[in-house]
Amino acid sequence: MCAFHLLINKLVIENLKHRPVRTLLSALAVGVQVTMILTLVGISKGMLEDQAVRAKGVGADLSIRPPGSSAIGLSGNFDERILPFVQKQPHVALATGVLIAPTGPITSITGVDFPTFSRMSGRFRFLEGRPIEHTDEVIVDEYYAKEHQLHPGSTVKIFNREWKVCGVFEQGKLARIIIPLDILQKLTANTGKLSIIWVKLDDPSRTNEVIAELRRAGLAEYQIWSMADLISQMSPNNIPVLKTFTAVVIGLGVVIGFLVVFLSMYTAVLERTREIGVLKALGATPAYIVGILLRETALLAIFGTIAGIILSFGSRWLIETLVPGSLTQAIVPDWWPIAGLIAMGGSLLGAAYPGLKAARQDAIEALSYD
Amino acid sequence: MTEAPIISARDLRKVYRAGDVDVHALRGLDLDISRGEFVSIIGPSGSGKSTLFHILGGLTPPTSGSLHVAGYDLLKISEAERTKLRKTTVGFVFQKYNLLPTLTARDNILIARDIAGKSVELDGEFNALLDLLGIRSRLTHKPRALSGGEQQRVAIARALVNHPAILLADEPTGNLDTENSTAVLGLLSDLNRRLGQTILMITHNAEAAAYAHRLISMRDGRIVPNA
Ligand SMILES: Nc1ncnc2c1ncn2[C@@H]1O[C@H](COP(=O)(O)OP(=O)(O)OP(=O)(O)O)[C@@H](O)[C@H]1O
Ligand SMILES: [Mg+2]
Asked: Which residue among A341, A342, B43, B169 has the highest number of C-beta atoms inside a 10 angstrom radius?
């Protein structure tokens, strides 16, 4: 039984080797589809993980966001007079407010009150340069600096203004581009507004208690998250647009796999008319002949998946090298089998019609075919 | 009591539909072949020789009449049973060898066993046949590395590997030079004599036809009665 399968596998492998360019291109196309899925999912995961790391880097126990906001992304600002109110609540050791202003579709600049922020999260560790001393200065994290090749003394243009980079700090602290809170408030016409208040407690085990108390004390409408809840919210499942986007890319992947394998197997069937006729003359059932094509297809999908996984390391390298400050891609091994199954599904669908054609092919015509 | 013929055809007809026209390829053919015979079939082009083989071998069903091949009633059996007939009861040899180009000679032979669902090993008896065919040393080569004569001998080995009751050879020497033709014809004759293999062979060549015990002429889809 085992040897029985070995021989047909040998035929399948010889067939694939017989047309190396077609085999390579087909597998590569399936691979591109797999990479597309792995890269998209990897970027979603990587960016959210990165956001979580930076949120943790603040060193707070809970965060307060405006009513109707979500844990992820920007969603409106609120009056900074809440800050002293929060600060007065029992068990609140320290509260600091930040303002976040978008600078692009996925980038933003953050205004920070340095005295309170540094007390909460520890001092910024500067890899280069120093803290901000003048009103036209900005500090950036190492990834942003790498992407834009910034060093102390470089200038960046944000909000139609030239800023002087005075320091590059170790990543993992809230944001990538930071200026003083009051300057950002003025610049964006958000005087007296905050986006988030971060709160540190004198006893972190009382987090839920304090949240309940804050809600009772008048912040019932606000989104108040413990750090743990906040981070658990940072999952692609909580971003509907990301789910839709992933579904679209998966759909596209299935279509690509289908078309490529359809074409590849269709030409294979046309080219092997005579051989299929011979197999039929030898008594091969339609299932036997379809089996050969399906095995070839499955191998293409497996090669393609492997290529796609390797390529996803390539796309991560590209992102790390070219745009580390804008995008982060995680390697997502738990998606490897899923992407593989998607590739397999699209490919087998693509092989269905050529397989049917082969199975139905008239042996006599095939044998008299030149 | 004599044994029933292994092939028995009565008023066998085959009509092909080619577009709007009906092509009458066989027009009432009667034929009896006994087990162990070696028969040559000759006849002009288009007289229906290949069609007869395709029907005998279960590649296409007859249109009407009656035909029994090794216990199969070819007018009644299903597609699946015809597949089984091809797998177990007949072996085809073609003018164009028709080996699978990507497989070695050995694997070309073994794939027939694979298709038949038998173990893919060559037993001692079959190795003796390979010696007889003179291809044992060529088994690891792919078809393109073999001469026409060698390819045809591999094709004969493939046709015989499942021990079919009937070997159908359609112009087996049509593509071979005289030397190779002589060798292949000698082999067929040997197989018939030593192993009692029933063989039907189509040929255009009178010398080739002379290797058989019996000569059948076809014309216009019928057997020409012996003069
Ligand atoms: N698949 C088919 N469809 C339609 N007509 C066919 C088909 N196969 C054969 N024919 C026709 O049937 C007739 C008999 O053909 P066949 O191939 O059996 O002749 P043959 O005796 O083998 O000829 P040759 O010596 O040239 O090989 C011919 O007129 C041929 O055109
Ligand atoms: Mg013919």
From this structure: B169
Do A153 and A80 sit in the same domain of this protein? yes
Q: Cβ of A288 and B115 within 8 Å? A: yes
CA of B170 to the centre of ligand 2 (A): 7
CA neighbours closer than 13 Å in the CB half-sphere of residue A39: 21
Structure tokens given for B167 = 């070997």
Residue A1: pLDDT band by 50, 70, 90 thresholds? very low
The ligand minimizing its distance to the Cα of B25 is: 1
CATH class of B35-60+78-224: alpha beta
Do residues A11 and B100 lie in contact, with contact meaning Cβ atoms separated by under 8 Å? yes
Q: Does B48 touch chain A (CB under 8 A)?
A: no
Confidence of residue A370 (pLDDT cuts 50, 70, 90): low
Same domain, A252 and A198: no
Specify whether the CB–CB gap between B61 and B14 falls below 8 A: no
Residue range of the domain that includes A124:
67-221
* Residue indicated by tokens 């909580």: A238
- Identify the contact set of chain A against chain B, taking CB-CB distances under 8 A: 3-4, 6-8, 10-11, 14-15, 17-18, 274-275, 277-285, 288, 363-364, 367
Which residue, B152, B160, B60, B76, is CA-closest to B110?
Answer: B160
Q: Kindly provide the b/e burial profile for residues B128-148, where b requires at least 16 CB atoms within 10 angstroms of the residue's own CB.
A: ebbebbebbebbebbbeebeb
Q: Which two structure tokens, joined as six digits, stand for A285?
A: 């059932």
Nearest of B33, B82, B81 to residue B212 by alpha carbon: B33
| Binding site membership of B51 for ligand 1 (Cβ less than 6 Å) | yes
Residue of chain A nearest B96, judged by CA positions: A367
Structurally, chain A folds into a number of domains equal to: 2
Mean pLDDT within B117-139: 85
- Residue A61 in any domain: the answer is no
Distance (Å) of CA A36 to CA A307, A318, A321, B12: 12, 14, 18, 61
**A104, A196: one domain:** yes
- Cβ neighbours for A217, distance < 8 A, ≥ 6 positions apart: A85, A89
Question: Cα(B162) to centroid of ligand 1, in Å?
Answer: 28
Pair A178, A281 in one domain? no
The residue among B32, B51, B42 whose CA lies nearest residue B211 is B42
Using most ligand atoms within 8 A of CB, pick from B13, B45, B203, B222 the residue to mutate for ligand 1: B45
Q: Is residue B138 within 8 Å of A316, Cβ to Cβ?
A: no
All residues of chain B having their beta carbon less than 8 Å from the beta carbon of residue A363 are: 59-60
Q: Judge whether residue B79 has pLDDT over 70.
A: yes
Atom of ligand 1 nearest to the CA of B204: 25
Nearest to B60 among A274, A284, A364 (CB): A364
Smallest CA–CA distance, residue A355 to chain B, in Å, is 18
Assess: ipTM above 0.95: no
- DSSP label at A206? G
CB contact under 8 Å between A285 and B112, yes or no, is no
pLDDT of A135 > 50? The answer is: yes
- Token pair of A55 as six digits: 């949120």
Compute how many other C-beta atoms are within 10 angstroms of the C-beta atom of residue A163. 21
* Nearest-neighbour CA in chain B from A20: distance (Å): 13
- The ligand with the least distance to the CA atom of B45 is 1
> Is A122 a domain residue?
yes
